[in-house]
């Protein structure tokens, strides 16, 4: 199997303040940024739907059906599934579980299956020796946008991992129990957004109708509601685990689920805990706070530059400091960088940078000292000497160096660093995976479904849809935006409001020190600006983007944090130990 973790792909941001195309006329009047209404609990009038049948002939789907205009006719939109019982040996215990694969139809709220939006494919693992009502369930989403959930399953969160190479990429390799699965803590549902996996829009919708920040979150909210109703998980504690862009969509989904409450459940429940928690792995919570294609400070990336330089023995700033102390000092330097950005990097108009203040600054002793500090922390350039120019010291030309430029200038004699993990260099002349728009079809996933679960889809399984990223719409739904125009490309307001709707909501953020796509300090600062520093812990590991086991040296610590997250009553207890984010001014 060829692991290609679906990284957040540095999309062209399409935000505008006049709203977007994600409106949903079937939704109730949004309550965003308003007190949560208290509604009396009433028994729903509808009945519990029967689980989908194990086998129904489905019209074969072609690759063209995953295009922006692709869709299914109503007659071809079916709910199908297959399941098989298994046992895993985990932490000295034999755990029986059922693996299920299939697809369910997501429909607009209040419409049943009469106003279907999309068929959503999923792979689920449910533990069989514990009461279902008390058993947590976690819905898992990958990033991109455009990535399926497949690679978050095998060898990462799911119960199985490969035990040796596969004979080809068309088949799954031999399997063995995954000792790092979180199946002992929670049931797992790996979900494929529209246009990935086997998920497709249903007429009159098109796939691209769900390729936007709010429309994507809405249809996935509706899938979760359908899954909860079909498999009677109304009373289960529910979690969302989102990786990369999945960490951006999760707060939006959380708000939508909490606003809907239990109103769409088809079985009466007194349980008001619609959502128990979120794990955000390598998120870019605020697209506009990053300096790639935005006129803003790159200070949030400076600590990552420092960690990458230290790994390659090119930083002279660490000395005898421990890794975490060094990271904290790098955060402080990143804040210093951002404060200077607004004074001398950008000029009076940030969209048309004025170089004169910067050129005047580096002629002063404090400017020379700052240049030398940039070199000491990042390993780029050299100690300043009179007569230096941008030819021998790139910081002179580009004080606000974005992560992509950093990968090129860090060690040009060796090659370009990988954006997803700055510990490694890309192959010569290769396209960095963060910019790869090639669609991948995972035949091995279909093979796994057939062999391990007995599910045989007639559709190609789209592991990554390269047609999605460049047309993704980050503009907020005008129905939802209200007075919160900062939601354009920013899910922190959704996260803040979700924690208002459910004060007991547990949230944890995970990052890798060497991830240049979603720098860890950027999330720390975004959360601080949102007033969430003492409510949301940010855990940083010696890893890259996605901090999966195959990218992370401190994976045991990551799993310990996940165990504590699921076991603990509140994630706030972890947040108290957050290192200072060093809030950056004028943001």
TrEMBL record:
Instruction: List every stretch annotated Disordered.
Output: 23-78
Q: Which residues form the signal peptide?
A: 1-20
Specify whether Nucleotidyltransferase is a keyword of the entry.
no
User: What biological-process GO terms show up in the record?
Assistant: proteolysis
Q: Does the keyword Transmembrane helix apply?
A: no
Here the segments flagged for biased composition (Basic and acidic residues) are 68-78
Q: Which Pfam families match?
A: Peptidase_S10
Q: Which GO terms describe its molecular function?
A: serine-type carboxypeptidase activity
Identify this protein by name. Carboxypeptidase C (Cathepsin A)
Q: Which organism is it from?
A: Phyllobacterium pellucidum
């Amino acid at each position: 199997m060829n692991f290609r973790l679906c990284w957040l792909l540095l999309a062209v941001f399409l935000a505008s303040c006049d709203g977007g195309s994600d409106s949903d006329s079937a939704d109730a009047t949004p309550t965003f940024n308003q007190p949560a209404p208290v509604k009396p609990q009433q028994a729903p009038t509808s009945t519990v739907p029967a689980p989908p049948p194990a086998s129904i002939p489905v019209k074969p789907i072609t690759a063209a059906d995953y295009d922006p205009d692709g869709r299914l006719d109503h007659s071809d939109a079916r709910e199908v599934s297959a399941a098989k019982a298994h046992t895993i040996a985990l932490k000295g215990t034999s755990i029986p579980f059922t693996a299920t694969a299939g697809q369910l139809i997501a429909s607009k709220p209040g419409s049943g299956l009469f106003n279907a939006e999309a068929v959503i494919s999923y792979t689920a693992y449910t533990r069989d020796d514990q009461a279902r009502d008390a058993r947590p369930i976690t819905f898992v989403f990958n990033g991109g946008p455009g990535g399926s959930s497949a690679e978050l399953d095998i060898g990462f969160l799911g119960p199985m991992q490969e035990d040796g190479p596969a004979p080809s990429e068309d088949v799954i390799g031999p399997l063995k129990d995954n000792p790092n699965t979180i199946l002992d803590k929670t049931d797992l549902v790996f979900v494929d957004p529209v246009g990935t996996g086997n998920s497709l829009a249903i007429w009159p919708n098109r796939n691209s109708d769900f390729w936007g920040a709010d429309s994507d979150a809405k249809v996935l909210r509706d899938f979760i509601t359908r899954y909860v109703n079909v498999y009677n998980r109304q009373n289960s504690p529910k979690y969302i685990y989102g990786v990369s862009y999945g960490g951006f969509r999760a707060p939006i989904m959380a708000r939508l689920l909490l606003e809907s409450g239990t109103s769409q459940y088809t079985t009466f429940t007194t349980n008001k805990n619609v959502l128990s928690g979120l794990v955000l792995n390598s998120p870019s919570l605020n697209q506009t706070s990053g300096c790639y294609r935005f006129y803003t400070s790159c200070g949030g990336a400076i600590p990552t530059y420092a960690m990458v330089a230290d790994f390659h023995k090119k930083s002279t700033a660490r000395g005898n400091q421990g890794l975490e102390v060094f990271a904290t000092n790098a955060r402080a330097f990143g804040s210093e960088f951002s404060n200077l950005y607004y004074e001398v990097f950008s000029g009076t108009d940030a969209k048309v940078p004025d170089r004169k203040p910067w050129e005047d600054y580096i002629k002063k002793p404090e400017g020379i000292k700052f240049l030398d500090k940039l070199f000491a922390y990042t390993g780029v350039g050299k100690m300043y000497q009179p007569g230096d120019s941008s030819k021998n010291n790139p910081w002179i030309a580009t004080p606000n160096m974005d992560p992509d430029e950093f990968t090129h200038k860090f060690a040009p004699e060796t090659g370009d660093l990988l954006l997803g993990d700055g510990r490694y260099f890309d192959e010569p002349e290769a396209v960095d995976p963060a910019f790869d728009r090639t669609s991948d079809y995972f035949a091995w996933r279909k093979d796994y479904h057939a062999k391990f679960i007995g599910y045989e889809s007639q559709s190609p399984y789209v592991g990554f849809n390269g047609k999605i990223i460049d047309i993704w719409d980050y503009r907020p739904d005008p129905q939802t935006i209200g007075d919160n125009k900062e939601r354009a490309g920013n899910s922190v307001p959704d996260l803040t409001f979700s924690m208002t709707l459910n004060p007991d909501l547990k949230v944890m953020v995970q990052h890798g020190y060497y991830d240049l796509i979603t720098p860890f300090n950027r999330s720390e600062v975004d959360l601080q600006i949102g007033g969430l520093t003492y409510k949301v812990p940010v855990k940083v590991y010696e890893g890259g983007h996605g901090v999966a086991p195959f990218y992370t040296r401190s994976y045991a610590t990551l799993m310990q944090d996940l165990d504590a997250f699921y076991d603990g009553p509140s994630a706030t207890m972890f947040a108290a130990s957050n290192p200072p984010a060093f809030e950056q001014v004028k943001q």
